[in-house]
Amino acid sequence: MKKISYCAAVVAIVCASLQAQVTLLGKSTLTGSSAGSYQDLSGLKYTLENGVPANLLGGFGSGITYAGGNTFLAVPDRGPNAVSFNPLVDDTVAYVNRFHTITMDLAPNSGSGLPFTLTPTLRATTLLNALLPLNYGTGAGLNIIPGKPPINTLLKHYFTGRSDGYDPEHGSADVLDARLDPESIRVSNDGLTVFISDEYGPYIYQFLRATGERLRTFTIPADFYVANPKPTGDEEQATNNTGRVPNKGMEGLAITPDGRTLVGIIQNSLIQDAAEGGDVANVLRIVTIDILSGRTTHQYAYLLTTGSGVSEITALNDHEMIVDERDGKGLGDGSKAKVKQFFKIDLNGATDVSNMDGTAAAAHAVPKTLFLDVVKVLTANGITADQIPAKIEGVSFGPDVNYNGKMVHTIWVANDNDFLQDYSGPNTNPNQFFVFGFTDADLSGSVYVPQPHYSLFGW
Q1: Residue 398's beta-bridge partner residues?
Q2: How many CB atoms lie within 10 A of CB 310?
Q3: Is the Cα dihedral 196, 274, 300, 436 positive or negative?
Q4: Are 63 and 253 in contact (CB under 8 A)?
């Protein structure tokens, strides 16, 4: 199979990407609804299959989004499955999927340290549910109890992170799958709904912000799904030759400032693309979706150059995006962070690769320039590489702030800590927030357009 040469792409990145002078403004951690509690506000009082409390707070850096004022929304992934207890379901549990509402108070720091102090406060936890009954795992043959949450009611059927929550008679495109692995969250311009991307399907769902009830499921291209869903990633990989790689599906999600388009990106190459061999395994697919009609409108190719995958995409304006490319090194992995880089891409004039195989798509990858080297900026501020979180996943633009007498834009970053913040010693891995400031001059000719928020919600 023909291999792709990436010399031209690499040269373009090096030549076109003078490092933006992005500044670390502040950072903080969030430990729960009260100091050190590691409890959310779901009100769930029972214990999950692995003995972990159902209201454990963690992992919410999988995705964050600005919602206006000083309010952000944060989504954890499929739950606390880093505790080994049952490999037949990849250690997943019937953790009810949810998102959190958090206020972020960023105030000028009059003392030593970073320019601002950041105080996050957990305000609400919203559980994700569907009106129609969902397919939960029975646990048969898997040495585990049924996966239906005990809080289900006649009209509320909750999504969970359990990997066996699907109908084995259907492929992963079944909208009645109960299993959900949220990875990104965006809020609609009116503030009434949220959009959440999922790795299992892959899916993109729309939920009511106030109640967590699912309203819509957006259609993803058919070749993104797998025909044979399985309760473990290894089984699923072995029994499918097309579709998303297990646990590496629709990872990032953006909404354009005009509120009309969703832009999703998968974490790694599709199975069929990777099968072409060589450098094609570095080609990721981007889809754009018209929110009004619900239809996929375009598909683009993104080329990995530094990291092992992509964790987020967020909209700089209606056609330019910031993409979070990273490796898995750093705090939580017992190693030193190396690659946590944000690239700017432009979809205007990019080639639609909907009908192309991986080799052809790679030749038409979107151009990219370096916007922010997270490791470089954090280490310059005294944060050693072994204390930079391995899973830098949540990225969102936030409100402008006054810094040194001028208004600067902010970009907010959060980590997924796999719910393992209770570890003591040097490997303590809390959920953290980092706030970076930048100006229009740092965008190399691009213009940042903030998403408007007309919200009935407020604190």
Answers
A1: 410
A2: 23
A3: positive
A4: yes
Is the CB of residue 367 less than 8 Å from the CB of residue 308? no
Q: Is the distance from CB of 436 to CB of 396 less than 8 angstroms?
A: no
d(CA 210, CA 125): 10
202: preceding bond cis by omega (within 30 degrees): yes
User: Which pair of tokens denotes residue 87?
Assistant: 């490999």
Rounded to the nearest angstrom, the gap between the alpha carbon of residue 338 and the centroid of all alpha carbons in its chain is 20
Q: Is the dihedral of CA 353, 355, 356, 357 positive or negative?
A: positive
H or E element at residue 106: strand 98-108
Question: How long, in residues, is the chain?
Answer: 459
Task: Answer yes or no: are the C-beta atoms of 252 and 343 closer than 8 Å.
Answer: no
Instruction: Find out whether 411 and 400 touch, Cβ atoms under 8 Å.
Output: no
**CA–CA separation, 292 and 79 (whole Å):** 31
Q: Which of 146-150, 319-323, 412-416, 450-454 has the lowest mean pLDDT?
A: 450-454
Q: Which among 281, 288, 244 has a CA at the least distance from the CA of 266? A: 244
Cis check for the bond before 108: say yes or no (omega within 30 of 0): no
The full set of domain ranges for the chain reads 7-443
Nearest CA to 163 among 239, 234, 259? 234
pLDDT tens, position by position, 441-450: 999 899 999 9
Concatenate the DSSP letters of all residues of 235-270 into one string.
HHHHT-SSSPPTT-SEEEEEE-TTS-EEEEEESS--
For the full predicted model, state whether its pTM sits above 0.90. Answer: yes
User: What does residue 74 show for φ and ψ, rounded to 5 degrees?
Assistant: -135, 140
Task: Give CA–CA dist 391/71, Å, rounded.
Answer: 23
The mean pLDDT of the chain is 91
Rg of the chain taking only CA atoms, in angstroms: 21
